[in-house]
Amino acid sequence: MTQKTPELLAKEIARCRDMTDKPFGVNLTFLPSFTAPPYPEYIAAIKEGGVKVVETAGRSPEQYMPELKAAGIKVIHECTSVRHSLKAEKIGCDAVSVDGFECGGHPGEDDIPNMILLPRAADELKIPFVASGGMADARSLVAALSMGAAGMNMGTRFIATKEAPVHANVKQALVEATELDTVLVMRAARNTERVLRNKGVDQLLEIEREKGGKLKIEDIHEQVAGVYPKVMIDGDMDAGAWSCGMVVGVINDIPTVKELIDRIMTESEQIIRKRLTASLTRLCQMRQRARLPDGDIS
Ligand SMILES: Cc1cc2nc3c(=O)[nH]c(=O)nc-3n(C[C@H](O)[C@H](O)[C@H](O)COP(=O)(O)O)c2cc1C
To answer: For atom 2 of ligand 1, which residue has the closest CA?
Structure first.
């Protein structure tokens, strides 16, 4: 959650409303933290701001569902497994965001990449889902749609855009990093997070190796708590753990959000019209050939 208090969230909602007449959503993350945010007050700000879509993440949003539904709010819950997605469906979520193992942030503990997770979700779910984790461009969108998703969610990719309110060093680090530069931390505490490797993260990994299964979140306080302002505002790229997906390997520029979305839409159309249509033609030819007698290679 980027808004540190419910009052700041209310201000941000008002700012967003001034900038667009299109619908927008708010993310509410229920994760283990050193000081728990005042969730009921955040929800009050969301309701008062007239926001109609909330994306929840971390723990199940079950206890807040009656209040959110009564306010006419659609709930999209972020899930890293099919069983959590089915639970979300059962408690009345309108959609889920299915986060594969490659995602930036918290991929859960199952380690199932989207190539498997998305078709599994499509097989089991009745509610719609969006593909999340590893999504960056038109290729991701068309692949996600073909695996049954209704759309895609991008996390890491949006940080490398002109509008993203983060230090230029962060955007440059994303352009320079490859798909080999993320690591998983906090696994022993069952709070696994995929982050971009840096000096602070290397220290964290060293502490994790020393402590093994006895690791407590307090042991790595310095490398995980209060890191975001140091990285995102001050541009200190060695400060510690901040979420970043493997998709960083296919991020090579810093466009505006409009340029990014326009490019994805244009190239998706090209992939579907050209590449997939050509594949369909080839497939038809192969099927026709298969019907010919053995030995005929025409
Ligand atoms: C810097 C950063 C911060 C994030 N913070 C949150 C958060 O507070 N709550 C949340 O639900 N997801 C958070 N995520 C995860 C994204 O919502 C999304 O699920 C994930 O980034 C998708 O994977 P991708 O990075 O490969 O696109 C964060 C991701 C990044 C990269």
So the answer is: 243
